[in-house]
Structure to design on (226 residues):
């Protein structure tokens, strides 16, 4: 039976879109619910367009127990087994991370543990990478606990920083990689839920990521750096 995944998102939802497209014809897993803390999030519109149940759960100025009660109720109603955060900017309440221990993950637009933690989101991350003079950045998929960006790392992929990069050009290059890496990592975790002893799990993420079109080209541009 298909693993039922909830995606939590606060923003435009391009990673959500990559997940929707990846799982559209899959027997292994499906995006069964989208949750947002912002009523106007593009992610909610994308969910509606794909006919996926979508819910706005307000977090601002509400007791955390009320927020987690709302989340746990809808997660249970929709029989969710796995949660993928995709640009969800709020801390997930501990009652939810505890219940979904090892079944909740996030994607971060840098190579953690560098450039993570509170306040390190969106363009702040890429601006910090550029001002540190890094030659390589990347994307990290990690488990989620009740602290920002500190859960154990599931998958990472490097992305070169090129001479003349701006925050916008670097963000776009990393985001393209995220759209490839995240669906593969989520699929690997979904597979592992169904077959915990399977030996093919995350190793496949790297094999598949490495063979995906264009990734070698991204990487080989590293060779051109001085
Ligand atoms: C991505 O860069 C992701 O790594 C970070 O938030 C951003 C979300 O972008 N956690 P989108 O809403 O998926 O377009």
């Amino acid at each position: 039976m298909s693993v039922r995944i909830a995606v939590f998102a606060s923003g435009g939802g391009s990673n959500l879109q990559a997940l929707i497209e990846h799982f559209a014809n899959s027997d292994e897993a499906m995006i069964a619910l989208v949750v947002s803390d912002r009523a106007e999030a593009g992610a909610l519109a994308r969910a509606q367009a794909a006919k996926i149940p979508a819910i706005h759960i307000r977090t601002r100025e509400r007791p955390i127990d009320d927020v987690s009660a709302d989340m746990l109720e809808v997660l249970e109603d929709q029989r969710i087994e796995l949660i993928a955060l995709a640009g969800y900017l709020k801390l997930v309440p501990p009652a939810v991370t505890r219940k979904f221990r090892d079944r909740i993950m996030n994607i971060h637009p840098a190579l953690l543990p560098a450039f993570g933690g509170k306040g390190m989101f969106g363009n702040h991350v890429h601006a910090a990478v550029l001002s540190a003079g890094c030659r390589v950045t990347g994307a990290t998929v990690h488990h989620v606990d009740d602290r920002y960006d500190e859960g154990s790392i599931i998958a990472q992929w490097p992305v070169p920083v090129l001479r003349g990069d701006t925050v916008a050009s670097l963000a776009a290059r990393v985001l393209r990689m995220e759209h490839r890496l995240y669906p593969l990592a989520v699929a690997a975790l979904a597979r592992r839920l169904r077959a915990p002893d399977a030996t093919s799990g995350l190793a496949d993420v790297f094999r598949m990521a490495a063979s995906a079109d264009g990734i070698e080209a991204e990487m080989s541009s590293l060779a051109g750096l001085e």
Remarks:
- Confidence is low (pLDDT under 50) at residues 222-226.
